[in-house]
Please model this.
Amino acid sequence: MTEYECSMPMSLTRMQLPFLAIMVTCSLSAPARTQDSASAWVNAPKSAARLIAAPVGEGAYHAGIEIKLAPATITYWRSPGESGVPPVFDFSHSSNLRSADVSFPAPKRIDEGGSDVFGYEGGVVLPVRVVPQEQGKPVDLALELDYAACEKICLPVHASLQLRVPGGNASETQTLAAAEARVPRRLSDAETARDVAITPVAGGDKPTWRLHWRGTPAADLFAEPPDLFFIETKREGDDFLVTLAEHPKDASLPSVPVRFTLTGPQSVEFALHLDAEATKP
Model:
């Protein structure tokens, strides 16, 4: 069995996590070995991470970042909500790699001491689309991964992972296919215009819109505005209220489209401009 050496920071609350400079770092005490189906697990308190891969791919290879979490432990989505930090990926030390694009399965809303955070419980597999520099040749994928594992306290974790792709077996192929099926489908502009309606709501203290989805009933709505903006979303009947809770002093509305994710049996994502009609009276 491979042994690991881990250094831990002092206990920290989740709200302190964005300000940390110290991380849990885990490294192999013996040289890592490339495996056909997956890298070795890199263990940390409350979590573990590894790379997995599928055996085939046309033009691009299928890989995944698997994070396993202890009971009652969470990790964050690409947009963590009111607190927390998203995972960070560095593939710069890989060989024969043109690009590695990470996708995120649909998140869930988690109550964190009265704050809404967005992420995963139990674990998650993040699909990675790997494009080789030289087609037809394998990629030696090397990932420096930073993520958070949070229970009553939050521990930031760093893991160094390596795997040659393509690789894998039937089990890893099924795992990746299941993760890819949970990634929200991006709607085209025409689909967005047909299936999404957003209208301003007058009379509130903050700019608010009502978003109506004409497709399969959705479980939840998540908004990803630009930096320095914060948008709250909540269900109201069959619709969702979208409220601009915070914005920078020099801009009352985002100048670029806001990315929205609707989760449910068929999760989707789309981009919308927030117009200036929903303003404080």
